[in-house]
Design a protein that fits this description.
The complex is a heterodimer of chains A (278) and B (278). By secondary structure, chain A is mostly helical. Helices cover 82% and strands 0% of the residues of chain A. The two termini of chain A are 38 Å apart. The mean pLDDT of chain A is 91. By secondary structure, chain B is of the alpha/beta class. Chain B has helices spanning 63-70, 92-98, 114-124, 129-142, 159-172, 189-206, 217-223, 241-248, 254-262, 266-277; strands at 21-32, 35-47, 52-56, 78-83, 86-87, 99-102, 177-181, 209-214, 226-231, 234-239. A six-stranded mixed β-sheet of chain B has the order 6-7-8-3-9-10, sandwiched between helices. In chain B, strands 2-1-4-5 form a four-stranded antiparallel β-sheet. In chain B, α5 (159-172) packs parallel to α6 (189-206). The chains are: A mainly alpha (278), B alpha/beta (278). The interface between A and B is medium-sized, with 31 and 31 residues.
């Protein structure tokens, strides 16, 4: 049992090592995406700083600071989870583009191990991106983290990572089935999740039918939980009502997503879609 | 166009009790322009352990489709395939451990070096990284790629060198059954000869069974213990080169054999397929 787990971990590590090696080789692209993330986060943060000017009302510095952190938590947490989602959802499209899809899918690696390895590589990338972005933003804008409960925030983000891995795996099915338009479908899923999850605003401002969607989005709970942890120092016990729904989505979406992926892989093998040219 | 119906070879003849590869009644159809095209049409063949078997056919004859079926990348519509007694569908993961494939296009992460790609491939097949590095160096040098080039991004290597790295990758995993899909297409004469020599050496030194597809008659004659001729998705003739020549060959070459069986020279058949494709 332990030997088998170690063997699978070794197989999964192949994908982590590969992703890290690719990050090094495509370093200029990584710099581009990090700069893009920093600029986007700063742009959003400046909306908070500009609140008095935009509203025409005097806003005390503490409220402005809170507003900035509110927006920053949303944008950086979304960036993190978005990267997890995108990297996993792009597994098929990326391997097609590199021309390696046939080799990877011919390798004697169980699909769960393959996807777990890809998720591992993705998490490394997302952590590097998010930490770099946070520190870069703090160079430009004073961020008040004096009340933050870092442990609670990290746990919320970890729960969100699990949930977004599941969503990513499920969305990776689209490019398997629809070779040309599948990836765009995955991006639409991501866009809808962004809209309904309260990344930049409370979900209470959404129309009723969109609020219904926000209930099933794990990002809604993760971002709200991270805000409570970083703005108000909420501990894990008080965050439990937000942890369990996100965890539930993750625990359901991973096996469902995996099952869908395996079924789509079978379909792709029947119809000849598992090849580089699509 | 004269097509020799495969009425003379009957069931595959095998020299040992359990062949390395046994395909029976394999059919694969694709839908193209509203019509069903039988890319592989009721193909049965057996390849003995340690044998080099060449599938000869023009472009579009079904060679690559058959190889994709045998390598688990494509699911046959009908028929069965076993590799060392294991069914490729029921025992897919076990079969994947026994096989490797080199395709006509070298599929690599081109930004990564030959060594990085090989270590990654080794990990996928359970070869520890240190072993993979040592063996990769040996194989690459033997294939004429100097140590100085092992750590260069693959995109900087010539097509011939990339194809040699693909061959090295397959050998690194010590496959019991190696599927070579036009491994020397597009290579210069010298590279072609080096690869052919290495294929022979692999069989002689590592007890590997090799199925290769080619439309190079000289290559088939040089390498293969037995040759099967695929035409229009059907296996229309099979035997040792000398048997085929004795049975079909006017002036004593495989080119005459192909001409007699298909009614066309292989170059004409290739050209015809290309024109049909455009």
């Amino acid at each position: 049992m332990i030997a088998e787990f170690a063997a699978q971990a070794g197989l999964a590590y192949a994908f982590v090592e590969r992703e890290v090696a690719l990050m090094k080789r495509y370093w200029l692209w990584e710099v581009v995406w990090i700069v893009y993330g920093i600029v986007t986060s700063l742009s959003v943060a400046f909306i908070g700083i500009a609140a008095p000017a935009i509203s025409g009302n005097a806003v005390d510095p503490a409220t402005t600071s809170r507003f900035v952190l509110y927006l920053l938590v949303g944008t950086i947490a979304w960036r993190f989870m978005g990267l997890v989602f995108e990297n996993i959802a792009e597994i098929i499209a990326w391997e097609r583009w590199e021309g390696t899809i046939e080799y990877t899918f011919m390798a004697p690696v169980p699909r769960l191990t393959h996807l777990a390895g890809m998720a591992g590589g993705t998490i490394v990338r997302a952590v590097v991106f998010s930490v770099t972005t946070l520190f870069a933003v703090m160079l430009f804008i004073p961020v008040d983290l004096s009340h933050a409960n870092a442990l609670s925030a990290i746990v919320m983000l970890a729960v969100g990572t699990v949930a977004f891995m599941g969503l990513g795996i499920a969305s990776a099915v689209f490019p398997l089935i629809w070779t040309e338009k599948g990836l765009q479908m995955a991006y639409i899923v991501q866009a809808v999740v962004l809209l309904v999850s309260g990344v930049y605003y409370p979900t209470s401002v959404l129309p009723g039918w969109l609020q219904a969607l926000s209930v099933v989005s794990p990002a809604t709970y993760v971002i709200e939980g991270m805000r409570r942890a970083l703005l108000d120092g909420a501990d894990l016990a008080s965050l439990w009502p937000l942890v369990w729904p996100a965890l539930l989505v993750g625990l359901l979406s991973i096996p469902i997503g995996l099952r869908a992926f395996v079924a789509a892989e079978r379909y792709a093998k029947r119809t000849g879609r598992l090849k580089r040219s699509g | 166009m004269a097509i020799a119906v495969r009425d003379d070879i009957g069931p595959p003849t095998v020299r040992i009790s359990r062949p390395a590869l046994l395909a029976h009644g394999v059919v694969k159809c694709f839908r193209s322009s509203g019509k069903d095209v039988r890319a592989v049409d009721d193909v049965s063949l057996a390849v003995s352990r340690g044998e080099i078997y060449a599938l000869l056919g023009a472009n579009g004859s079904g060679k690559s489709t058959l190889i994709r079926v045998l390598s688990t990348l494509l699911e046959a519509d009908a028929g069965t395939v076993t590799v060392f007694g294991l069914d490729i569908r029921a025992d897919e993961l076990a079969v994947k451990r026994l096989i490797n494939r080199v395709s006509v296009e070298a599929s690599f992460f081109k930004k990564l070096s030959a060594m990085e790609n090989l270590v990654y491939a080794g990990r996928l097949y359970g070869v520890p990284a240190a072993d993979a590095r040592t063996r990769s160096r040996e194989i690459l040098v033997r294939l004429g790629i100097t140590a100085a080039r092992h750590d260069e991004p693959l995109e900087k290597l010539s097509r011939g060198m990339q194809q040699k790295v693909a061959i090295a990758r397959a050998f690194l995993t010590s496959p019991s059954l190696l599927l070579l899909d036009e491994p020397t297409t597009g290579l210069d004469i010298r590279s072609k000869r080096e690869v052919q020599t290495f294929v022979r050496d692999l069989r002689d030194e590592h007890d590997a069974t090799i199925l290769l597809t080619t439309h190079d008659l000289d290559e088939a004659e040089r390498l293969a213990d037995r040759v099967g001729v695929l035409h229009g998705g059907k296996l229309v003739a099979e035997g040792t080169p000398s048997e085929l020549v004795a049975r079909y060959g006017g002036r004593g070459s495989l080119e005459d054999v192909f001409m007699t069986i298909t009614g066309r020279k292989i170059e004409e058949a290739d050209k015809g397929e290309e024109e049909a494709g455009t």
